[in-house]
Amino acid sequence: MSVTITDVVLRDGLQDEDVVVSTDHKIAVADALVAAGVKHIEAASFVSPTRVPQMADADDVIARLPRTDPSVTYSALALNPRGVHRAIATGIDEIQVVTSASAGHSTANTGRNPDEALHGLAEALQKYPDRSFLGGVSTAFVCPFEGIIAPAALVRVASAMAAMGVRRLGLADTLGTATTEQVLASAGAVRDALPDIELSLHLHNAHGQALGTVIAAHRQLGITHFDSAIGGYGGCPFAPGAHGNLATEELVAHLHAHDIDTGIDQQALGLAVDTVKHALAQARPLTAV
Q1: What is the pTM of this model?
Q2: Domains in the chain, start-ordered, CATH in brackets?
Q3: Among residues 92, 95, 236, 246, which one is catalytic?
Q4: Burial 25-34 (b: 16+ CB within 10 A, else e)
């Protein structure tokens, strides 16, 4: 029994810090993750450098990612057509296009409502029929502006993303406050509506419930792909009250304790955590950008 983990510290982890980590230090973090056996790494997002200056060096990061292990896959995130085109130009392995399940978060995050965001992304993806895309739904379970997201609303957005041709769909508990029961019910509704789409979960961790949700989702829904960030860093700058990501080192230890293999070396992962801490200690404050 095994699961796949995508570490998102270089994107989701760093985007919510009040500092800007240098490209050199980001590459050092990538090196440490690869050394620990992490095979899937979300390396950057192609978003406005004015709104998210922590990601302003996305092109340089992608160009310098370590390629010593051909089994490692790097991904980047895009919220709109401009981001998709920028990501394509870098040659990144995978691109995850993301929209929100709620209008409130979508407007705060992208300046568009979900229907507008989905339409723009669908048009962009049609320009690249030879590329494989991943999909993601933010605020899939709880929105800071609208509260609980009904499963039917999530299924509607998920179905629109599936219609674009994404091969895996990640459901994000952006605030980290969704209960295990809520995640299971909503993810189960998406699985039933879209049985041919692989689902993954991106869990933040407000109340310490995320580890239990992972085990339950794996055993009850058969989900085998999860996002996490070493050190538990991260959050969404445009989702008030968002908590940090599920920590990769805690997730790996918890899965191994349940006899679920990840292929990741726990001791080496500890060194990766130290690398991130050092990178943040050396970073420039946002006021200096």
Answers
A1: 0.94
A2: 4-285 (3.20.20.70)
A3: 236
A4: bbbbbbebbb
